[in-house]
């Protein structure tokens, strides 16, 4: 059974870059048909899909964040990483890494709280 675990700083200052890593166990991030996704939930709001990196390394981001977001991967470590630049307090959220297949978010990390504050 695949497991995902987010890691990274819980506090980021405004204008800095948020960087989170998702470590995957129990399955390879290069396995065909899977998309490795980042989703966030700001306090008091719904889930927001950020983007993904696919099994072949292809990427897609939500247009509203595309100028600030980058998702990359390290296949040797079976990890994928989210970077979000120029953060503001509006980027405060619980961030989840998720395995997506056939448009179904089937496996979730436990989530990690990121607060943007000086």
Structure in words:
By secondary structure, this protein is mostly beta strands. 29% of the residues are buried. It has strands at residues 3-7, 11-12, 18-25, 35-41, 48-54, 59-61, 69-74, 79-84, 93-101, 104-108, 112-116. 0% of the residues lie in helices and 53% in strands. The chain has no helices and eleven strands. A hairpin with a 4-residue loop joins β7 and β8. Strands 2, 4, 5, 6, 9, 10 and 11 form a seven-stranded mixed beta sheet that branches. The chain has a four-stranded antiparallel beta sheet with strand order 1-3-8-7, with no helix packed on it.
Sequence-ordered SSE layout with sheet pairings:
Elements: E1 3-7, E2 11-12, E3 18-25, E4 35-41, E5 48-54, E6 59-61, E7 69-74, E8 79-84, E9 93-101, E10 104-108, E11 112-116
Parallel strand pairs: 2-11
Antiparallel strand pairs: 1-3, 3-8, 4-5, 4-9, 5-6, 7-8, 9-10, 9-11
């Amino acid at each position: 059974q695949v497991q995902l675990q987010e890691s990274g700083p819980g506090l980021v200052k405004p204008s800095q870059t948020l960087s989170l890593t998702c470590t995957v166990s129990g399955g390879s991030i290069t396995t065909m048909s899977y998309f490795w996704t980042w989703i966030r939930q700001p306090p008091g709001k719904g889930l927001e899909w950020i983007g993904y990196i696919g099994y072949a390394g292809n990427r897609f981001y939500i247009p509203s964040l595309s100028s600030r977001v980058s998702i990359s991967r390290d296949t040797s470590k079976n990890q994928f990483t989210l970077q979000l630049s120029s953060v503001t307090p509006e980027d405060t959220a619980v961030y989840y890494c998720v395995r997506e297949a056939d448009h179904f978010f089937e496996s979730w990390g436990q989530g990690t709280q990121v607060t943007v504050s000086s």
